[in-house]
Amino acid sequence: MTSTTERFTERLSATTLLRFATAGSVDDGKSTLVGRLLHDSKSVLTDQLEAVAHASRSRGQEAPDLALLTDGLRAEREQGITIDVAYRYFATPRRRFILADTPGHVQYTRNMVTGASTAELAVVLVDARNGVVEQTRRHAAVAALLRVPHVVLAVNKMDLVAYAEPVFAAIAEEFTAYAASLGVPEITAIPISALAGDNVVEPSAHMDWYGGPTVLEHLETVPVSHDLAHCPARFPVQYVIRPQTAEHPDYRGYAGQIASGVLRVGDAVTVLPSGRTSTIEGIDALGESVDIAWAPQSVTVRLTDDIDVSRGDLIAPSADVPATTQDVEATVCHVADQPLTVGQRVLLKHTTRTVKAIVKDIPSRLTLDDLSQHPAPGQLVANDIGRVTVRTAEPLALDPYADSRRTGSFLLIDPADGTTLSAGMAGEAFAAEAPVTPAADNEEGWDF
Out of 18, 313, 335, 357, which residue is the most buried by the measure of CB atoms under 10 Å away? Predict the structure, then answer.
């Protein structure tokens, strides 16, 4: 007889996974929406709900405040705001979800970047009474910058505008036009009331003029391509396996997670940055030899030739090799409290490779309110998004971020204490770039 655990495991393995993030201005109701989504989809344990009800009563509220299901920090509960990114995992019979509830404050823009960087869908909330505001445009711009393929506009608090269709239609039209101008490929607008539960999990009885999906229905049915298997193969080497045992005296395998694409036995491949070529002799996955593997599987690759391959190298098909460069031009979101300055020495971490680098230039800082470029700011401070030029000590094989979010992203790290300074996206941003002014060479320190 199959156990309950086995049946549950089988059900989860048969469903797809959607990573999505929520964003919106302060008090637009993000945490309430997430709480309602978890509650109405039966994804909240009884003791969790009891704890929320108790906390709500202690604050003088008669009904449970569902926002407390996600606002876990004490400061968040006291102020009624979201500060940190709260991750929640839940599942329905149709799909599994990883949800990132991100802050709405301007000073926590970096937290939204963190939460949305791996999301396939972003839910941007708007208060129906206020419409599209500055922070709404900011979050739409960040979603476009991070190449989030699906954006949902959730027009919340429709109960406070008498569920008026013209109010929803005007907001949806304004937001859709703005997001489309940024290059967002798909926008879905849904009128909701997170507090009352309208169109979150169950259809609303108050908006018969709306014939679209509920939030959960859209989350369950939106196409999730993961486009990893459709991109050229990229295999960053994480570890070299050399058991040198009596059973495997000559075994040499290169272990890691396939970042994108498909690897097959017999494929001609090139190892970067050395440029040496070979052929895939075998692929081992979960202790067994397989003929084919695809992203995001973790495998061990064996090559026919005994060439020098180490951690940080990238194995790619010889027919589609990424260009290597030591001059990285990218858009970065600065996440550290200390500023990023021209001439600063940093470490650049790309996939499994970490190299020394120098910030050669910061040609512009992006103003997300109106997408204008502030030229030559000299530095980026916390939550700033700007263009940078970085010179690395060793060649890197970066894809444009527009082509691959996995191999087109990187981190800038403080070499002194390992603090993450900036999250970078190689290549062009979504908006017109400010002219790049040549930076003076750094005469001392790490000059490459």
Answer: 357
